[in-house]
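Usage example:
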Amino acid sequence: MKTFVTRKEMIQWRQQMATEQKQIGFVPTMGALHQGHLSLVKNASQENDVVLVSIFVNTKQFNQSTDLQSYPRMLSADIDLLCPFQNVYVFAPDEAEMYPADLEFDPMPLGRIGELLEGVHRPGHFEGVVHVVHHLFALVRPHSAYFGQKDFQQLAIIRQLNRYYKFGIEIIGCQTIREPDGLAMSSRNLKLNPSDRQKALAIYRALSHLKQHVKQKELHQAKAEAVHIIENAGLQIEYLDIVDPITLESCASWQTSQVCCVAAFCADVRLIDNMLCESVL
Ligand code: AMP
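Running the assembly step on the lines above writes:
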């Protein structure tokens, strides 16, 4: 597995790819790779000549130092998981390579979309995401970049970033990969003990319940039932909202299409998930 750690190596690789007229797909990650990440890599690998996977735990997007300290780091295991892909390269910079002191950055106004959902509860989080993705896009200059719908709001912000900075990259949203029992795959699941792992399933049950009852029950009733399912399992909800898929504004009544977004603590592990709920009527 060809792994780069410096900006200089990345720039040389990018020049070589341009000379060889390779189509580049890009998958940014924070490592502790699981099948969710690998599904992005697989899509990118099939749709491009070469793929760059970045692995960097971005300090700037953590609003809690305990969360940052306990975030799983396992670079050599990550590289092993990527080895079967013939056309994949890895960029695993350290802090100084990612954020050189002399590198300029003009922050993008997040606007309304950044004020909702995660924006309310994780101050500074999306500013940190935009900062790192801006630097990565500028360095890698991929033709397409792959992001998970698991981080639904993040995907919307990345699309906004791509327009704002005029990168002209094709942004591809990939479906959420779940464990066989429905739990959305996440690097944070590694922090759950077996009993909490079982409790966390309530999130999927609640989202599925909502999806089943679109236009069958009043929105506020279906939402209250979803909240109850999660709280009854012993999780603490930070937010659960049914929102418009484009604006992410809260829906007062059912639309043809809406997304239910949830963030909840299972013990001290913060989990997020969402589900597209479309009307079949
Ligand atoms: P992370 O390492 O958590 O920053 O995630 C890197 C990328 O993988 C992001 O675009 C995530 O949305 C995506 N991702 C994380 N979990 C999943 C999942 N369960 N299914 C699909 N994509 C995912």
